[in-house]
Design brief:
The complex is a heterodimer of chains A (107) and B (124). Chain A is mostly beta strands and 107 residues long. Chain A has no helices and 11 strands. Helices cover 0% and strands 50% of the residues of chain A. In chain A, strands 2, 4, 5, 6, 9, 10 and 11 form a 7-stranded mixed sheet that branches. In chain B, strand 5 and strand 6 form a beta hairpin. In chain B, strands 2, 4, 5, 6, 9, 10 and 11 form a 7-stranded mixed sheet that branches. A 4-stranded antiparallel sheet of chain B has the order 1-3-8-7, with no helix packed on it. Chain B is 0% helix and 49% strand. In chain B, 41% of the residues are buried. Chain B has 124 residues and is an all-beta fold. Classes of the chains: A mainly beta (107), B mainly beta (124).
Chain lengths: 107, 124
């Protein structure tokens, strides 16, 4: 199975900060990576697919980059609505695997 | 508007069975592969099972293979998960999800819509 390792597990930041979350795959997954945002009590929401493609309706302050085994999700200027947990997921092969999540907290 | 609404969750004893349903609306379900993903209390997301758009292919996580069965009825725009021999570690919120249909790998695509989830609790 492909292991997905996210870092950090928790991130404390202020409104307006630039935030970067890293996701590493245990083997190459090309660009078959998605990023999701989940808030308490809500369903996850797709932010980025194919490593760097922004899902329709998602604010442009979110961006993704990387290929192979190393990927990043960047929020250029953190907004109050962005405090949530973020997950990466590989869809290169079954079984799909998710990172353990990064909780973005208010500093 | 795409909507996925799960039902069928509840409390079940270890070793018992439960059937989950997902009602899809706002899109042609027969054009999309569908999946179940779960989140156990205090843990992250875990993929459970997938079924291709034409039901020709199904996949399961090792943790549920042989105990869970995924199926779909596109005439009813519905996705199902039949769960048997349930264990305490199956306790989780189960999400019905839809796969996108573009920018896909050779095996699957990303999840573009999620339902709100239904809670399954396995406890004596």
């Amino acid at each position: 199975d492909i292991q997905m390792t996210q870092s950090p597990s928790t991130l404390s930041a202020s409104v307006g900060d630039r935030v970067t979350i890293t996701c590493r795959a245990s083997q190459s997954i090309s660009s078959w990576l998605a990023w999701y945002q989940q808030k308490p009590g809500q369903a996850p929401k797709l932010l980025i697919y194919m490593a760097s493609s922004l899902q329709s309706g998602v604010p442009s302050r979110f961006s993704g980059s990387g290929s192979g085994t190393e990927f990043t999700l960047t929020i250029s200027s953190l907004q109050p609505d962005d405090f949530a947990t973020y997950y990466c997921q590989q869809y290169n092969s079954y079984p799909w695997t998710f990172g353990q999540g990064t909780k973005v907290e208010i500093k | 508007e795409v909507q996925l609404v799960e039902s069928g969750g509840g409390l079940v004893r270890p070793g018992g069975s439960l059937s989950l349903s997902c009602a899809a609306s706002g899109f042609t379900s027969s054009r999309h592969s569908m999946n179940w993903v779960r989140r156990a209390p205090g843990k992250g997301l875990e993929w459970v099972s997938s079924i291709s758009w034409d039901s020709s292919s199904t996949s399961y996580a090792d943790s549920v293979r042989g105990r869970f069965t995924i199926s779909r009825d596109d005439a009813k725009s519905s996705l199902y998960l039949q769960m048997s021999s349930l264990r305490a570690e199956d306790t989780a919120v189960y999400f019905c999800t839809r796969e996108g249909s573009t920018s896909c790998s050779t095996t699957s695509c990303y999840i573009d819509f999620w339902g709100q989830g239904t809670l399954v609790t396995v406890s004596s």
